[in-house]
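Office hours follow-up: a student asked to see two folded examples consecutively, so here they are.
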Amino acid sequence: MRVLGVDPGLRNMGWGVIEVQGSRISHIANGIAHSSGQDLAARLLSLFEQMTDVFATYQPDTAAVEQTFVNKDAVGTLKLGQARAIALLVPAQMGIPIGEYAPNAVKKAVVGVGHAAKQQIDHMVRLQLPGVEIAGADAADALAIAMCHAHHAQAAGHLQRAIARASA
């Protein structure tokens, strides 16, 4: 299973692609889509085009997107929501399933605690993907989101197999 994780952002949208084979997770690619243009519409279009290219290049089977963290700045939160819409739209357009995870759930799955610092996330991603060259903090977060999705998918698979065995 090839998983694309996306850390939505209007200026910088992190992305990371991993391959999952059983319990083995390997790094495929990561990067940051930087928006360009002066107005909001041009920036969103730039992100859309870059993320579409990522999908075309790496052809993930599933995607995972971090949920929006609501802060005190309503305008900032709304703009982040619009960038998040791009992160959801591109995989939906490709017809692949999308998982959504709260920031604390991602941190707990990768680091073990729900309130981990960015440096801890980066460190744990590097430990679990030895030799990875990470494009930046947003890309590290995106890889963590992909890893969280992989862990949840594995757990769901174990549960489904257990239910099938119990009902047989």
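And the second, which I mentioned at the end of office hours:
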Amino acid sequence: MVLCNIISPKSNFVQGGQGLPKTLRLATVAAVLIAAMLGYAAVRASGPGEDDARTGAAPPAMDTLAEARAKGEIRVGYANEAPFAYMDSRSNQVTGESVEIARLIAQRLGIPKVDAVLTEFGSLIPGLNAGRFDIIAAGMYVTPDRCKQVLFSDPTYGVGDAFLVPTHNPRNLHGYEDLARDKDAKLGVVVGAIQGDYAAAVGVPADRVVVFPDSVSALAGVQVDRADAYGATALTINHLLGKLPPDGGLERAAPFSDPVIDGKPVRGYGAYAFRKQDQPLADAFNGELKRFIGTPEHRRLVAPFGFTDKELPQGMTAARLCAGQ
């Protein structure tokens, strides 16, 4: 385009030079032609990166997996719920079933360091999608609603629920249906946790569901009578009770019946979550996970957190859970 404008009979430059001697006009035109050709050659040689910078287009960004490998680190979000992901006061390190498996899988993917970012459970998905961290490592249940917002790995465990209640279970609460029948009973749940959905599904009104920021707060809520029971995974309840003295005033409700929703007893399956645009990271992580879950190495790694063969996912997949199966 530059060359055409210079040599065109309608070019302002040529028209403006009509009063110059012919030899000077020709020399001037020749000089401009040479300069234009050199400039054009420089542009051609600059490569796509410089051309993108000139036009304002950003070069293609690395995906999250490639970036994590290049940096040697990746961030996971957790919600301080034992035994899945929590701060161990003795070692001053974040640990738990979900965090320790994430560390091992990250190593296998060529990412030596895992940084942990603490947030409330209800803020995990918003925090992930806002880029505060790259993976949710909190034992999050896979549900159809959550599948609309994030990508899930296949589950690492499956487990039923339990209630934490005052000693001797004075309100005789052995399942969510009991809460629906007792018009004065209040259930404690953690913000954003699936247990609030279970309560609603069996008919517990919202004004009898007390929401706490984390499991430790929920335990304290039962101790001071803000709630008559705290609903969580059986593993969470077991871990909390293991931290209490024998006369702590709380116990696990026994027997206990998982809620029946849409004609099926509910069992929760926990997994890792990724941003929708991070399919390469999700695929690579899930590939390593499939080769690891159920192996002797996996069993040894999660045993200290109370996981046994009963909690193995037994072939359940994220695809089936996202489809509501």
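Two things to take away from it. The CA atoms of residues 188 and 210 lie 5 Å apart. The two ends are 62 Å apart (CA to CA).
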